[in-house]
Amino acid sequence: MSPPVNPPERKLQQNPSRSLTYRLMHQSKTALRAAYPPMLAVLAALLVGAMLMLVAGASPIAAYSALFRQALTTYFGFADTLAKTTPLLLASLGVLVALRAGQFNLGAEGQLYMGGLGSLLVGLALPGWPVWIHLPLALLGGFGFGAAWGAIAGYLKVARGLNEVLTTLLLNYVAQYLISYFVNGPLKAENAPSPFSELVAVSARLPTILPKTQAHAGIFLGLAIAILLTVAFAITPWGYRVDAVGQNPIAARYAGISTNRTILSVMAISGGLAGLAGSSEVLGLKRRLFENFSPGYGFDALAIALLSRGNPAAVILTSFFFGAIRSGASVMQRNASVPVSIIYAIQGLIVLFVAISLTLDTQSRVSLFSAKSTKEQQT
Amino acid sequence: MTPIDFISDFLSACLRLSVPLAFAALGGLISERSGVLNIGLEGMILTGAFAGAATAIALDQVWPAVGVALVAGAMVGLLHAYLCVSLGVNQLVSGLAINLTAAGLTTYGARLLFETGTVALPAIAPLNIPGFQQLPIVGVFFQQDPLFYLLLLLLPLTTYALFHTHWGLSLRAVGNAPRAADTAGVSVSRVRYCSVIFCGGLCGLAGAYLTLVHVGFFTENMSAGKGFIALAALIFGRWHPVATTLACLLFGTTEALQLRIQAYGLDIPYQLLAMLPYLTALAALAGLAGKATPPAALGIPYTKEKQ
Fold this sequence. Notes:
Helix content of chain A: over 70%
Distance between the termini of chain B: 68 Å
Strand content of chain A: under 5%
Distance between the termini of chain A: 36 Å
Number of domains of chain B: 1
CATH class of chain B: Mainly Alpha
Radius of gyration of chain B: 20 Å
Oligomer: heterodimer
CATH architecture of chain B: Orthogonal Bundle
CATH architecture of chain A: Orthogonal Bundle
CATH topology of chain A: ABC transporter involved in vitamin B12 uptake, BtuC
Order of helices and strands of chain B: HHHHHHHHHHHH
Structural class of chain B: mainly alpha
Number of strands of chain B: 0
């Protein structure tokens, strides 16, 4: 009689039980070691950015100090940084979940728009309900709409073998036009001078956390989800499956993991989290749905997730950094006469240098961002 | 307007809107046939558009502008090739980095160079072919600009080169079985470098077409997803030049159609029309009968040592 073979499911359950603290400590140690290349990438991008400022005849030192002083040391600037960190954090966590499974969700921008729509609909629909029911429902609406939008790409990948990169990118344009249609048409507020919706009910609003500013409680939602994801990836079977599919889909399949179901669930959750970014903008910041309300947060999210190398805790810091850059940019333009658009160039350069830095150590090349994993899923 | 005029006018719009897509898609085809995934088409088009516009303003001449756009696109191609072929960076990440960087740099550059608002650029004049241009309907094919004729020339040339020459065989071999091609003495990295640079050049031309023929000025992110639609056309056309170009024509026609409906002021919200080209591209991909089979080695960096 052959010895009984351990079913893979049992191994999954044994592994996590091996001391959570050990795993978290191990993770943070690797995270520290993994932090050098991204930091170098950011430095390099800031340096090239400085050269671009010199080309424009401005002083990089004056510009950067204006930017960071505004974003980090003034009350209103810091509040604005928090307000901008919130959607970035939520959307990046969404992109990160997909990335852990080897999926490139470039549709966070579109999912964010759909999430905003979902939350607005719930926020308008149930006036007078108690906050503790209405607000969670409104958030759930945003999550649901975003998840549905993300699941379309997941379904096309699983059922039709279509690369998720292209479908998510194309869906962005559709979502953006859809929102624009709604706020110009059926959802336009009465007598609105420009395309925007009615205000959401008071019971569906995320409260302000710093008086007289735009910083709102959405940031706590983002932090909670970051912690939740860290734990989920460390100890749950779902997290294990996602990582297994991301690192070696073929091996994962041999271990009895359904790659298709994992990809579908991951794309839906990814879309849902990006949708929550839209919810936080509608329920916390603007309290209405506006046309083109996202200045490209969904694309920043990808840069943030890559820069954080799939680590949810690192995403918190990276989102804060990107939020600060966005928050201080306009003061930089005013005080140092450097166009705000320099920050888009810097963000693009960060991704470029991150891409290069990933080749510096082989460890990340074989796991998270290996070209092989994206290829092998197609077969 | 007579029906004939209307049809030729519409046809002309379809062609104009398809040309940049076709340039980019043909470039992407060459790159992907050699095994290098190219999400960066969008950024390469944008770079070409910006470089073309900047040169046209500086020199007030069109042809040097087209040349600079071509070279600028090719330089971005070189960067992509260096990252993907020499460094072995994930090809998706590299393409994305190129898109984001190009969008950021051209927006910044536009703020610095075109501060005075929208600057009208010198345009490429159409080249009428006498004898044919007066023909009803088909006449529109003979009153286009030189870049259009270049594309018409390029299409049979690439098709022939790809399937009937030694060069095309090497290219396809590198994309399908790099190890075998290497063993047969073909330099995988040289072929990949050449095709990605060529791809960049064509995307540069697509950008120049946008700024110098089609729109007449440069605006931020004016490529508006054309690179992604070109990629969709490439997959829909199953990596074959003729089918890919026809797919571009389909997407260009959708765009022309929605613009035409908007112009007629029918009671359809323009947003629902404007999303048509993207929906068509999605529908084309989703409805593709059977799975599209990309080149076998697409997206996989090749290293000699790994046996």
